[in-house]
Design goal:
- It is a multi-pass membrane protein.
- This protein is an alpha+beta fold.
- The chain contains 43 helices and 35 strands.
- The strands form 7 sheets. The chain has a 9-stranded mixed sheet, with helices on both faces.
- Strand 28, helix 26 and strand 29 form a beta-alpha-beta unit.
- The longest helix is centred in the last third of the chain and has 39 residues.
- The two termini are 74 Å apart.
- The relative contact order is 0.08.
Length: 1277
């Protein structure tokens, strides 16, 4: 083969891999297929970043992506140039070597952990078919390849993505648990590829001669497109229900066999393994700006020194010491410029970036271990998945929340229903609903007629309910009790006119029982499947009734058509003696309670959503019990009729676009093909059929009454669903089935074809009724939302529920207040939407509510409620500005009937257009998009799996945890990190300016008066640890005060009250650093003026004073001082003396001549040295101490403006029961207010002192703020 042919061959291979994937047996004799299989990756995984050979170059390459590292590497190299050399050459490389080495060690440790994990996984064993031995042999996971046949047993983990070819289940079903993949613990059902081989017979890989064509690897867990083509060229469509995903676990199935289609890093699990999320915080972006200012300051200093040295050289005449007079002043100034770059390099904070990472890890540790954020019921604590945006929690301005599962429990209980236009209110339901205590035993509940005994329905492991949550409605029970008396009713003709209602009731509960994906199992049996056919002898009379003509009569209370006119009719039916086993059926309905309970209590229903579980639960309460499920059949009990086998023809699963789910079954009584559909009322009501002339009045009445009931349910805050059905002719079903199979076997445009096929089937539906499900609020949701609004956070609710339901829930959670004005935006066209938005803007402007007043509880505000269709138009480019203007003027916005895409667009609009910090919180897969778009995404580990959690930056278990996460931890993290950054910049500028000041006295030559080793270690060792402790442990305000006064959160965020990290604070710190450096330099200068001390003797008190000024400056700025702070500060000061004194005494030739022998020892033995240090420290720190004093007083007045001391005291602002037990503080500086009720006649300061409170730096003219600092017992970090 020539080179050209080989290149063409490789190019054709790449083009084939781009289009689709062809899979066949790995032992195939087809050379072309074998070649294609060899192109695919094996199953070995490697998540490590480095190897032994690639570590050094790759790690250096990654670290040099940081501009700061490049900058210091450049300076180290520059110091090797003789004409600009400032320090000893080996000294200049120490900082960059320490930073690079520390980061490299961290990367080695992390990568070694990944290596060990990979090695354990790759060495796992599985059974793979070997053609030579004609049996399944053990093989390591890493040796599995595409095309291998893998045999798995129950409870084994799936090693690669397998196409399911065989299951020991006689119906070809396999159950898997996807907890390792998406966190969901409920079982998923997978199906063997149909028409491949007969089930019940062992699968032989040798006989598999089919070819699989499927899509290329992707990370979509819910999608798999392809087809399998047998030797006769017949194709069978493949979908996600045929695919077993890597990392999942086989459950409730003895044996399965599959062929590997994706292996290793091409599996869906590995393609979704993106690792920790990385986001840049707002503070980091601000830091980059300030670092640029530091660069400008550095360049200004160096340029000044360069010009000054040139002028000095030009004016120098007859020097008394050696000077290079041959170099021109301009060139000498150029050399000095680069020398000063090396000398003043500390001004750029290289260690700050490393310190920030350490501080954030410490902050995450304390957040992770906060007991207040721990859920003992779920044994769940907060998860911090994004490691670098903790400070953004303290800057949130807009919060976007889902409703179901986020504000509510997402534990659904059947509350009410409407069938045939008649409402059944179920008054007892939900009134006493509560969580069962772990030790509480549940007894059977007897309701009307004595036979409706409901036991405990256990839904493990996802949704757990009690059967007593649904108490059957007596009227509906009475009507269902006549189901077994159909022959009697036909015999005397007394109830023929009501047979249509009975049909509706039967179909309604049958739909509730079978229109779902619930898996049925029990403790004694892994799953309940249909194991025996059921004859229709018991149902002949019912079949006759259901097929008889329909008539209608009205009840006495006027509620609509009725099956039985009064209670006496039921009693007559029960007392009358009839043949054909009818009375035996009544006894089956009313009797044998004990055996029924024994059978039902063992049923385990595993549902994919709480809604499905609630509906199946409700059907079972009416004795329409789902007994078993297989791929083709369902077993359902109807009241009084016994087990009923339903042939399952097709399932159209729920999706967010269609907003409905359908099952196609063959009715066991009539033999007709029936479609049962459940879904959102906004969709199903539009899909209802137009009735024939003779039945129009009846169907119009049903539809009208059902709509009234839906509106009433929504006003009560219930989640609503509509139930409908459609009867298909055989020819109509056959035609639809052909198109459906064609869509399922398509690879291109498969989703679009499936959508069209489903929409073609789900038309002209017969409306059966609707359901109302209650979903109560989580605990403390109203209090949490109220606190967030007081903190200045605008709360929006984005939900897919009906408008009435959303408004009801928001009213219950105090987002909508009694004095708020509701603005509703429901439009039928884009033009109408534009006009309405302008009208609403004018209405809000007439209201005159300012933005600052929006969170005030006493101010009349506006709340905008907008539906999904109107929101679609409002988000278009032409109307985006109007919608944004209106929403900014409203106190809150409620978006109803919104899709996941709309949610993300709303968040993106607010984030980009207003430039504010956004936070999105949700619990389901439909919230993932808005969670990822927001600056901070929070997932709630609720009842809808872990998709939201896995896509989030932080994961919590309850909505109420947001209050402490934002108001306390967010506030602390932002304050700590902002102050630490400002402190870092301050100490670098202060120290560098000492060296710069000295240049005015040494001809701007780049000389230094400090030992070069001490100069390098000053920032790397002597003053590096205290800022880290400061950033992790400091608290400006106690947690109780932050929780009880949410206004402090807003005060810290707005620059009008507390400019924590505003441009002004940066320049104030820089100016203060310049002043302190001048004081530190000139106090020793004037004290030693006229003496014969050398430059090193002058530099010793300057450097020592600078150390104490920097350390004491941190004490002044710290709001909390613990023994940890004191220990670190003492060790930092001690390390300086422990290094300089021995270094001066014993290292005679180290760094000569900048390290003269015994200088430090001589200086520190003289009293003048200590007098100079004390005067320098006092002079330098006095303005900072005064500024802190006045700033704290001003902050107190700004935060609590309008509150008297007595009012503040009554609001329970106190410091007690601090959560994190790290240390016992010596003092706590901040705004601390007593939680003791004061009497107006008592002296407030005395009360404060008695309770251990202190208020330093406050207005001493006010006796309330005159308390002396006093240690607080039981006060810890």
């Amino acid at each position: 083969m020539s080179v050209w042919e080989w290149l063409c061959w490789r190019r054709s291979d790449r083009e084939h891999l781009k289009k689709k994937r062809t899979v066949g047996p790995s032992f195939t004799e087809d050379e072309e297929l074998k070649h294609k299989l060899g192109l695919y990756k094996n199953n070995k995984i490697r998540t490590t970043k480095y190897s032994l050979l690639s570590f050094l170059p790759k790690n250096l390459f990654e670290q040099l992506h940081r501009l700061a590292n490049i900058y210091f590497l450049f300076l180290a190299a520059l110091n090797f140039v003789p004409v600009v050399e400032a320090f000893q050459q080996e000294v200049s490389v120490i900082p960059i070597l320490l930073v690079l080495s520390a980061t490299a060690l961290k990367d080695i440790f992390e990568d070694f952990r990944r290596f060990k994990s990979d090695r354990v996984i790759n060495k796992l064993l599985c059974r793979v078919y070997c053609r030579k031995q004609r049996s399944y042999t053990d093989r390591r996971w890493k040796d599995v390849r595409v095309g291998d046949f893998v045999r798995l047993s129950c409870n084994e983990i799936i090693p690669a993505d397998l196409l399911l070819l065989y299951s020991s289940d006689q119906h070809g079903v396999c159950y898997i648990e996807t907890a390792n993949l998406d966190g969901e613990t409920n079982l998923k059902q997978r199906q063997v590829v149909p028409d491949l081989c007969p089930q019940g017979v062992d699968f032989t890989p040798e006989n598999f001669h089919s070819r699989i064509e499927c899509e290329n690897p992707n990370n979509d867990l819910s999608r798999f497109r392809g087809y399998i083509e047998n030797s006769s060229k017949a194709r069978v469509g493949l979908h996600s229900s045929n695919l077993l995903l890597r990392s999942c676990t086989v459950r409730n199935t003895e044996t399965v066999v599959g062929i590997v289609v994706y292996a290793g890093h091409e599996t869906k699990a590995m393609m979704n393994n993106s690792g920790p999320r990385y986001k840049r915080s707002q503070l980091e972006r601000r830091l980059n700006t300030d670092v640029l200012w530091c660069v400008f300051i550095l360049l200004a200093m160096c340029l000044t020194a360069s010009i000054g040295h040139g002028i000095w050289m030009k004016n120098l005449q007859e020097p008394v010491y050696q000077v290079d007079t041959e170099t021109s002043p301009a060139l000498a100034g150029f050399y000095v410029f680069w020398t000063m770059i090396i000398v003043l390099q500390v001004l750029i904070p290289i260690s700050l970036y490393v310190s920030i990472e350490i501080v954030k890890l410490g902050q995450i540790y304390f957040i992770h271990n906060d007991l207040d954020l721990y859920n003992d019921q779920l044994d769940s604590r907060i998860q911090c998945r994004a490691l670098n945006i903790t400070e953004d929690l303290g800057q949130v301005q807009y919060l976007f929340s889902d409703k179901t599962g986020t504000l509510t429990e997402n534990k659904m209980v059947f509350r009410r229903c409407s069938i045939y236009g008649i409402e059944y209110p179920h008054q007892e339901n939900g009134e006493n609903w509560r969580e069962p205590e772990p030790s509480q035993s549940v007894t059977p509940l007897e309701v009307w007629m004595g036979s409706w005994i409901t036991g405990v329905l256990r839904l493990e492991p996802s949704f757990v309910f009690q059967a007593k949550d649904v108490v059957p409605d007596p009227d509906l029970v009475r009507k269902l009790s006549c189901l077994c008396l159909s022959a009697l009713s036909l015999g005397d003709g007394s109830s023929v006119a009501s047979s249509l209602e009975l049909t509706f009731i039967t179909d309604f509960f049958l739909a509730l029982a079978i229109c779902n994906s619930v898996v049925v199992s029990s403790h004694s049996q892994p799953r309940h499947v249909v194991s025996r056919p059921t004859g229709l002898g018991l149902f002949r009379d019912l079949d006759l009734m259901l097929s008889s003509p329909s008539g209608f009569c009205s009840t006495r209370d006027g509620r609509g058509p009725s099956l039985v006119e009064d209670q006496e009719a039921v009693e007559d039916f029960s007392e009358e003696k009839t043949g054909d086993g009818c009375m035996q059926d009544v006894e089956d309905l009313n009797g044998n309670v004990e055996s029924e309970q024994d059978g039902d209590d063992e049923l385990l229903y595993e549902a994919e959503s709480p809604d499905e579980a609630a509906l199946v639960h409700a059907a079972r309460a009416y004795r329409c019990t789902l007994r078993g499920r297989s791929a083709q059949t369902l077993m359902v009990d109807l009241p009084g009729l016994g087990p009923l086998v339903v042939q399952l023809l097709h399932i159209l699963p729920f999706d967010s676009n269609r907003k409905r789910m359908s099952v196609v079954v063959r009715h066991p009584l009539t033999g007709q093909v029936v479609v049962y559909t459940k879904g959102a009322d906004s969709v199903l009501m539009d899909l209802a059929e137009t009735p024939r002339e003779q039945a129009r009045e009846v169907y119009d009445h049903i539809r009208e009454q059902t709509q009234k009931h839906l509106d009433a349910y929504a006003r009560d805050g219930l989640r609503t669903l509509c139930i409908a059905k459609k009867v298909l002719e055989e020819e109509e079903y056959d035609l639809w089935l052909k198109r459906q199979l064609l869509a399922e076997s398509s690879i291109e445009n498969r989703e679009e074809l499936l959508m069209e096929s489903a929409q073609r089937l789900e038309t002209d539906l017969t409306l059966l009724g609707c359901t109302g499900i209650v979903d109560r609020l989580q605990e403390d949701v109203p209090e949490t939302i109220e606190a967030l609004q007081q903190a200045g956070i605008r709360v929006w609710v984005l939900t897919g529920d009906k408008q009435e339901t959303a408004v009801n829930i928001t009213n219950a959670c105090k987002l909508l207040r009694s004095n708020d004005q509701l603005l509703t935006a429901n439009c039928g066209s884009k033009d109408a939407c534009a006009a309405l938005l302008e009208e609403l803007i004018l209405e809000v402007q007439r209201g005159g509510t300012s933005t600052r007043e929006l969170s005030s509880s006493s101010t009349v505000g506006f709340v905008l409620v907008i539906d999904g269709r109107t929101l679609d138009w409002a988000l278009q480019e032409e109307l985006k500005g109007s919608f944004l203007e209106l929403s900014c003027k409203c106190r809150a916005v409620i978006c109803c009937r919104s899709t996941p895409l709309q949610k993300s667009k709303v968040v993106q609009l607010i984030r980009d257009q207003l430039g504010v910090m956004t936070l999105a919180v949700g619990d389901g897969a439909n919230d993932v998009s808005m969670i990822q778009v927001a600056d901070v995404g929070i997932g709630i580990s609720g009842q809808e799996g872990m998709q939201a959690v896995m896509s989030s930056d932080f994961a919590i278990s309850r909505f109420k945890h947001l209050q402490k996460l934002l108001l306390v931890h967010g506030h602390w993290c932002y304050h700590r990190l902002a102050n630490m950054i400002l402190y870092f910049i301050y100490k670098n500028v202060m120290y560098v300016n000492l060296l710069f000041c000295y240049q005015f006295f040494c001809g701007f030559s780049g000389s230094v008066m400090i030992n070069s080793w001490v100069l390098i270690f000053f920032n790397l060792i002597f003053t590096s640890v205290p800022p880290i402790i400061y950033g992790i442990l400091d608290r400006d305000t106690p947690s109780d005060a932050l929780m009880k006064r949410p206004e402090l959160y807003r005060a810290a965020r707005t620059t009008q009250v507390s400019p924590v990290y505003a441009p002004s604070t940066f320049w104030i710190n820089v100016l203060d650093a310049f002043y302190q450096s001048l004081a530190c330099f000139f106090v020793p200068y004037f004290a030693l003026e006229g003496s014969d001390v050398g430059d090193m003797s002058f530099g010793s008190p300057v450097n020592t004073s600078a150390l104490f000024i920097i350390l004491l400056h941190q004490i002044i700025e710290s709001k909390t001082l613990t023994w940890i702070h004191v220990l670190v500060l003492v060790l930092s000061a001690a390390s300086y003396f422990l290094f300089t004194l021995p270094f001066s005494a014993f290292c005679v030739i180290c760094s000569h001549p900048t390290n003269l022998f015994g200088v430090e020892l001589l200086e520190m033995s003289q009293p003048l040295f200590y007098i100079i240090c004390v005067l320098s420290v006092v002079t330098a720190l006095l303005p900072r101490y005064t500024h802190t004093h006045t700033h704290t007083e001003w902050l107190t007045e700004g935060c609590f403006q309008g509150y008297s001391p007595i009012q503040l005291s009554a609001n329970n602002l106190a410091l007690h029961n601090m959560e994190a037990h790290v240390s016992q503080p010596f003092f706590f500086r901040g705004v601390l207010l007593s939680d003791v009720e004061h009497n107006s006649s008592e002296d407030e300061s005395t009360l404060l002192q008695e309770n251990g409170f202190f208020l330093p730096h406050l207005n001493h003219n006010n006796p309330y703020f005159a308390a002396e600092p006093k240690p607080r017992q039981q006060c810890s970090l």
